[in-house]
Amino acid sequence: MNVKSPEDHYGFQMGTERKLARWDKIVEYFWHLDTLPTVKVWELGKTTEGNPFLLAAISSPENIADLDKIREGCWTLAHPKGVPDDRIKDIIENGKTAVSMTMSVHASEIGGTQGSSELAYTVATSTDADIANIRENTVFLLVPSSNPDGNIKVVNWYNKYLGTEFEGTSTPYLYHKYVGHDNNRDAFHISQVESKHLTKFLYEWYPQAQIDHHHQGSYASRFTIPPHMDPLYDEVDPLVWTEQQLYGGAMIMELEAQGKTGIETQASYPADGGPYWDEAPIAHGICGMLTESASAKLATPIYVHKQQVEPSRRGRPETRVQMNYPHPWNGGWWKLRDVVEQQKIASIAILKTAAKFRARILSNMHMKAKRQIKRGQTEAPYAFIFHPEQHDTLAAIELMEKLSLADVQFHVSIGEFSYDEVKYPAGTHVVFTDQVCRPYILKLLRETHYHDGPHSRTRDNTPLSPYDFSTDNLTEFMRVKVVEAVKPLKGDFEKVDINYPEGGVEDSTEGYILDGRLNYSYAAVNSLLEKGVTVHRILEPVGELPVGAFYIPPQEKDITKHLEAATKVHHVSFSKVEAANFKTKPVEAIKVGVYQRYRGGNMDEGWTRWVLEQYGFKYETIMDETIKEGKLEDYDVIIIPNDDRRMILGKEKDIEEYYKKRRPKSVPTKYPPEYLSGIGDEGAKKLKEFTEAGGTLLLFGKSCDLAIEDFKLPVINSLKDVKSKDFHCPGSTLKINIDAESPLAYGVAEDTLLLFRGYPAFQLKQTTNNEDYRIVVSYPEERMKVSGWLIGEKYLTNKAALIEARTGNGRVILYGFSPQLRAITTATFKFLFNALWG
C-alpha cells in the first residue's frame, strides 16, 4: 500500500533548518501510518490540555495481527510465578522482543518528536534486510511525544519569533501546564495524566528495553549514550547493566561507522535510580536507557567552536580522546538535523540488537525476574507491612494505589498474623518482595542512605549531588507507616486490588465531625464551602481526634446530599456528634493569589497550582504588574513559590549573577521585553505594604530571602554562605520538631519528616518584640537525617524551618521548604492548607 513519506506529508525533511512539525500534523501522520499492515496506532488517552496521547506499534504484519499474544508473552517472562517451564521455553524460542521509545518528554528537547515520524516510516517501510529482520523479530513501541501539549507550546513560540532576534529562544513559561521540566520527575508518584499513560503501557507490556530520548546543553558532547555512569542503584539486576553495555556498544559502533563524532558513553548521567522514564523501568528489570543529544537553538543552527566544547559534569574530565569519548567533535555548525540523524541511527542500532539477540534478551528478562523473586524469598527484607493504624489512612491507600499502578502486587492477610511479637488484624495490606519489581519496592518503601564515595565526590572531595534526590522513599514523604519484615511472614495472604474505602454519613441531629488528619478532608471541606455549607474548625481535641478536626453544625437546609457527594469523591466519613460542647472557629474560603513569573517559568509555582486544584482551593494567578501596581487589596493570601530572589525581582544585573553562579559559562536566555519578568524593588515594597495592611504572605524555600533582604525581618539564613563541603543535603528526609498548638500545624502528624533540598534554615535575631515571631517547625539537636545524604548537620541544629511572623496587621509565613514539593510531600501539605482559610 502506498503511504506518504514524512517529507511528503510535512513538506520538508525532519530536522530541516527553521522548520518544526506541530503535534496536530504529527498525529495526522501517525494515523496515516496506521493504514499500513506494519503499524498499529492507539490513542492512550488525552493529555492535561486535551490533546491525543499516542502509542504506535511497528512490526511485521504477522506480529501486528498477533500483538496481544506477544504482549502477553513479554509480561509472562517478567511474571514467571506458576508458569510451566515449557511455556517459558516456548516464549523464548518463538516470542518477539519488545522495545519502547519515548520522545521529548521535555518539549524544548525537540529532536525525538521531530524525528519520530521519519524513524517510524523507516522501520515500517524499509526493504533493508536489517530493518526487515527488526520487523520479524521485534515489536517497536513508539511514543512520538511524551509531552504533546509542550510540543504545541514550543512550536507556536518558535514560529512566532522566527526571523527576529529572539528566534530559537526557549518558551518564557512552563511547557507543561503544571510541571514543566519536572514531568520526567513523576515516574514514581505518577501524578500527571501523561505519567499515568506511560506507566500503564510500560507495565502492561514489560518491553525488554525502554529508551528515553533527551537533549543536553549545546556545549556538551554531541551525544551521550548508554551505558550510564556510576553510581548505580545496586539492587538492580546486573544483567540490566550488561545489556546497557550491549546496546550502547551497538549504538556507538553504528554512529562511528556513519560518520557521527563527539559521542560519549558512561558520563554525566548516573544510574542511581531517579524518578525518570529510564530509571523506573530499570527497577522493574527492564533495560531502561537515556540518550542526550546536544541542542541547537530549537530548529535554528548554532555554531560551536571546538574549544567551547566542555568536559562532562562527571565521568569525562577532558575533551581529548579517551575510552568513553573515542572520537571528539571538531566543532562547527550544529543543526536539528544532526540530532534527528544521530537519534535515528542509535534507535535503529538498538532495534537491530534486540532483533539479533532476541532469544538471549527474552531469556535475560525471565532470568532477571526469577532472580528478584528468589531474592525476595531468601533475603531480607521479605515484605513490607502497611500498618493498619495510620495517621492519615487515606494517604496510605493513595500510596498503595500509586505502587499498584506501577505493577507492585499487594496481598491482604486472610486472618490475624504476628510479626516481631506484634499482632496484625485480618485485612492488613502487605507487599511481598518476591516480585520482578523488588528494586522498585525497596527504593520507595525502605529507609535509604546515599552512597558517599569516589563516584559521588570530585577530586578535591567536594560532594557531587545525585541527579535528583538522595532518597525516593515515598513512605517518608507521605508519612505512611510501614514495617519492614526482615524475617519471613507466617500466615495466610491473598492477592488483592487496591481500592479506596467507601465513606459514609452517620445519622445525626447535632452535626458531624470530619477527621482533620486526612488531606482529603480538606478537599471535602472545600467542596462543602462551595455548596454554601457551614463548616467550623474544632480548636481542641475531641475524643481520639486531635485539635483541628472539622465540625459541620446542623443547618437550615438539608445538606445530606452534599455530604454524601463528598464521601463518594473524597472517600471521607462524617461521624455523628453526640454534643457540640467544644470550641470552634468558622472556616471561610478566602481570596488566594499565586505569583507566576516568566523567564522560563517556575516549576514550584506550577506544582503549587496543581496541588491547590486537586484539593479544591480556589486561587488566581498574579503576574508582575498586579504586584508592582499594588492592586492587592482583593487578596487575603499571596503565595510566592520556591524561587531565587533574583529571579523574583528580575533585575538584569542580578539575573546575570544568578546564571553565572549556577552555570558559570552560560548566559541568560534573551526574551522579548514583555517577558522580562520581575517585580523589582517596587513590587517587594508593595508586598510588604500588603502584609502590614492585614494580608498574609506565604514564602516557600528560597523566596524567603524577600522577607529577609527586602522586608528586613530579623531573620538570618544560617546556610547562606556555607560551602557545599561543609553542608550538603541533596533531597533528604529530616526529623523536625513541630509546635502542635499552632493552627498551621493542625492535623499534621507529630513524626512528620521534612524533605530538604537547597533550602534556607532560619535563625531569629534578638529583637524587642520576639513575641511577634512563632517558630512552628524547627530541627532537633542531632541525628536528624532519616534517609538520604547529610553533611554538616550542625548547621541545622535548633534552626527554624517554619516561622510565622506578625508584621503590622498581617503576617509573613516563611517556609524553609516547599510544603507541596512535586506533589509528593503529602505529609507537609497541611502546613500550606491551614494557611488558606480565614
Total helices: the number is 25
How many separate domains?
4
Q: Note the overall shape.
A: globular
User: What is the assembly state of the chains in this entry?
Assistant: single chain
How far is the first residue's CA from the last residue's CA?
Answer: 67 Å
Explain what this protein looks like in three dimensions.
This protein has 838 residues and is of the alpha+beta class. It has 4 domains: 6-372, Zn peptidases (Aminopeptidase); 382-496, no CATH class; 512-586; 592-833, Class I glutamine amidotransferase (GATase) domain (Rossmann fold), CATH 3.40.50. The protein has 25 helices and 37 strands. Helix 5 (85-94) runs antiparallel to helix 13. The chain starts with 5 loop residues before the first helix and ends in a 5-residue tail after the last helix. The mean pLDDT is 97.
